[in-house]
Design goal:
single chain; 320 residues; alpha/beta; 5-stranded parallel sheet; 11% strand
């Protein structure tokens, strides 16, 4: 009741309303000891219950149109997922349908049908490593103690920080070299298949573009960046046989991960709106090609709701 009241005050119906856009990536079938904050099925089910009771959840494409026209319902919210993980289909979809809610899934097209993102190569390599100390000094990445799940998480975070902003090809080679050092078979079923993507859409979900290979756009040449944006859109449209109108910037930090020129590229590629990872809620005067999003992580309904309410108070700064 408190969350609904505060939410209505900050996001009333109509032209003064605000749109809260939530970000998820994965919903695991069971808790992961290395990443205990990553939602599993039980926790995601609880989150959707909280969201559904306190907010008016809309598909993102409809919510963006309503925001532009000044006709949002009070406490409007949309749910999004980034990257295209298979558990979005196998775990998240049935829970969303149980609650009668829609979500938008931003998919990096290169990783459909057996691909693996560079970060997952690192994560799964460290997870699978059988020893207590992972020596990557030959790669210039140092030596990591990995005796406990928490230590493995620290190692993963350090490695991802070290390679995330490398040029895409160099980043992929470093991730592959880490995997080769561990020398175990890594999973090749982490991302959706084209069939799962079609089934997700048939299940009432919205699909959006997320480039082909999830590069940091600010770190690549303009022609390559535009090709990543446009070809990712075209490949999803070929699979689904319908237009793709929404885009999510990879990593998504304005001015760091993408620049003003990339916003123009998204417009030129034919998208109608795009989302970033800047915090805050979107109001009618927002840049519809840099809409902010919020990452939920609290484990009680009250804290979860109050954090979402507090997010509505945030002034969005989107100048790239």
């Amino acid at each position: 009741m408190l969350v609904r009241l505060l939410g209505t005050l900050l996001s009333p119906e109509g032209a003064r309303g605000a749109l809260s856009i939530l970000i998820f990536h994965r919903v695991l079938s069971r808790p992961d000891p290395i990443f205990p904050d990553e939602p599993d099925a039980q926790r995601f089910d609880a989150m959707l219950s909280w969201i559904g009771k306190a907010f008016n959840v809309m598909p993102l494409d409809r919510a963006v149109a309503a925001l532009a026209e000044g006709r949002l319902p009070a406490r409007a919210a949309a749910i999004t997922f980034d990257d295209g993980y298979a558990d979005n289909y196998s775990v998240a979809l049935p829970i969303l349908q149980k609650h009668g809610l829609s979500a938008t899934f931003f998919v990096a097209a290169d990783y459909l049908d057996g691909g693996r993102m560079f970060n997952d190569t690192v994560i799964e390599a460290v997870r699978a490593y059988a020893g207590d100390t992972l020596d990557l000094t030959h790669l210039g990445l140092g030596c990591f103690e990995v005796r406990t799940p928490a230590a493995r998480r620290t190692a993963i975070q350090g490695l991802l920080s070290a390679i995330k902003y490398l040029p895409s090809k160099t980043r992929s080679k470093q991730a592959a070299a880490i995997g080769a050092t561990v020398d175990v078979a890594l999973p090749d079923d982490l991302m959706m298949t084209s069939g799962q993507l079609r089934a997700l859409r048939a299940g009432g979900m919205v699909i959006g573009g997320h480039t082909c290979s999830h590069p940091i756009l600010a770190g690549i040449e303009d022609a390559v960046a535009y090709r990543e944006i446009a070809e990712g859109k075209q490949r999803l449209e070929s699979i689904l046989r319908e237009p793709i109108s929404l885009f999510a910037f990879p990593n998504g930090k304005p001015g760091k991960d993408y620049l003003a020129k990339h916003v123009r590229m998204v417009r030129e590629a034919g998208f109608d709106a795009a989302v970033s990872t800047a915090i805050g809620a979107a109001r009618r005067d927002a840049d519809f090609f840099q809409l902010p999003r919020f990452t939920p992580w609290d484990k009680t309904a009250l804290r979860f709701g109050l954090r979402l309410v507090d997010n509505m108070r945030t002034t969005v700064k989107v100048a790239a």
